[in-house]
Amino acid sequence: MDGERYDRIYDVVRRIPRGRVATYGMVAMVAGYPRAARFAGLAMHHCDDPSVPCHRVVNASGGLAPHFVSQRGRLQREGVTFAGRNVALGRHLWTPRLPDERGGAASSRRRARDRAV
């Protein structure tokens, strides 16, 4: 059961581009598990798949995982900057493309057109 749920979390994390981060809560929400930030954290803790960039997931204030020793260095190598101990979320927070009401990813052109109407 958790394996399938973990896979949904991992699929979202794989979408986070280099130089960007997402919060545990955001990852859980995009995966279809709203209010399940702790579950996303647990999935990251159990992940041993090198194709999942777990280092790109941080807490809601931009804080790093306490026992993930290489997380800061990995993020810095991708160009992520910090404000003290926390990631500068205003600069590096990933904005995922969410599906529109028709089930597909909404294009920026379509969103602009819909706002104009």
In short:
The protein is built from 6 helices and 4 strands.
Structure description:
The chain starts with a helix and ends with a helix. The chain has six helices and four strands; from the N terminus they run αβααβαββαα. The strands form two sheets. A two-stranded parallel sheet has the order 1-2. It has one domain: Orthogonal Bundle (Arc Repressor Mutant, subunit A), CATH 1.10.10. The model has no long low-confidence stretch (mean pLDDT 89). Helix content is 43%, strand content 7%. With 117 residues, it is mostly helical.
Set out the fold topology.
Blueprint (H helix, E strand, L loop, with lengths): L1 H13 L7 E2 H7 L6 H10 L10 E2 L12 H7 L4 E2 L2 E2 L1 H4 L15 H9 L1
Parallel strand pairs: 1-2
Antiparallel strand pairs: 3-4
Helix pairs in contact: 2-3
